[in-house]
Amino acid sequence: MKLPKYIEPDFTEKRFTEAPDAVLVAAPVDKAAPSGFHATSIFPEYFKINGEWILAEDSRMDSVPVYENGKIYIREFRNIKKGDLVVVGRTEDCEEGIYVHVDCFEKETAAKTNAFAFRQSRSRETGFSRDYEELIALLKHEKENGGYVVWVMGPACSFDAKARDCFASLIDNGYVQALLAGNALATHDLEGGYLGTALGADIKTQEQGYNAHYNHLDTINRINTHGSIPKFIEEEGIKDGIIHACVKNDVPFVLNGSIRDDGPLPEVYEHTYEGQDTIRSHIRKATTVIGLATVLHTIAAGNMTPTYRKLEDGTIRPLYFYMVDTSEFAANKLGDRGSLSAKGIVTNVQDFMNNVCSGLGLL
Fold first, then answer.
1. pLDDT computed for residue 109 by the predictor
2. What distances in angstroms separate CA 236 from CA 221, 223, 230, 325, one per listed residue?
3. Which of 85, 115, 251, 258 yields a CA-CA distance of 20 to 30 A from 167?
4. How far apart are alpha carbons 206 and 219 in whole angstroms?
């Protein structure tokens, strides 16, 4: 797979050479920007400072650019400090020393199309075979070239024994660099390894056992008794599953709490912003993000994910984002939240896992 080439803006154009420097205004207090602040998007953005156009190398939407030590840093409002030099201005085509670079990657020459055509949306009627081919090629490319693939998972990913085994094999074979989830995914996956059920249903037969509605609570209680997930896995002899594979392969998993959580497990972040910062620490390295059957967690990750990634060697490449869900609304939700480059695949996670693992030769 060959990634599309980044197209640098032509800074010799008149709109760039004659543009004024961006206006910098000191933040009046902690956690607040000056009036007229510039809010960032998902696209590469350049700011003219002292006559030089500077790229915000690490960005996210709905945050503000701060100039510091010769670089542009993108900060959430809660991380602004009084006196930070914030870029103000709300135009995007050089008028105020701000340029948002939307068409920044080479595109294949598009075939001539009709103005009127059927089946242009992504729905349950869409043929996703090509998407799977592209995703499988992308995962192979990421593995071979040191990419950082972040998976965002909902609890449904743990409800089926084969899906659990498939994802564990993705971890074992180097296709997962970080896992983002909530208390429920870890709880039900570890319940599967401990008692063979997820929310009380057998992960192989889907049959409910007597009093099996206690199983996830017993699992949480036992993990908390041991004091940590790795200790639980070791002491209880857990041999399979998603979290087991993460622990075995030293793949980081970030579990964020919810007001509705049971437990929660010891590793779950109970403070929202500590969890958000930890998520972003992985999104900052991500080259591909894949959300599976979790709308809220995927939107949270999506709102931190730009369309590009600047690598350590200075190369700028696309950052790919997939959202997988049985609901058309959910699969396409990120587009409504500003993550316009996210691609939706409408299917259940069990079939998705099977198709991906089969395409990678892991089944």
1. 62
2. 13, 9, 10, 33
3. 258
4. 18
DSSP 266-309: TTSB-SHHHHHHHHHHHHTT-SEEEEES-HHHHHHHHTT--SEE
Low-confidence stretches of the chain (pLDDT < 50) are none
Is cis: bond before 264, omega within 30 of 0? yes
Question: Which of 196, 213, 190, 212 minimizes the C-alpha distance to 161?
Answer: 196
Distance of CA 212 to the CA centre of its chain: 33
Can you tell me whether residue 136 is helix, strand or coil?
Answer: helix
Q: For the CA atoms of 261, 262, 268, 273, what is the dihedral angle to 10 degrees?
A: 30
Contact 305, 276 (CB under 8 A): no
The pLDDT value given to residue 33: 98
Closest CA to 153 of 28, 320, 300: 300
The predicted-structure confidence for 265-276, as pLDDT tens digits, reads as follows: 999 999 999 999
The pLDDT of residue 330: 85
pLDDT at position 338: 52
Which residues on adjacent β-strands are paired with residue 46?
A: 55, 99
List phi, psi (to 5°) of 150: -105, 125
Contact 212, 198 (CB under 8 A): no
Q: Return the amino acid letter for 231.
A: K
- Summarised one tens digit per residue, pLDDT across range 140-179 is 999 999 999 999 999 999 999 999 999 999 999 999 999 9
pTM here is 0.94
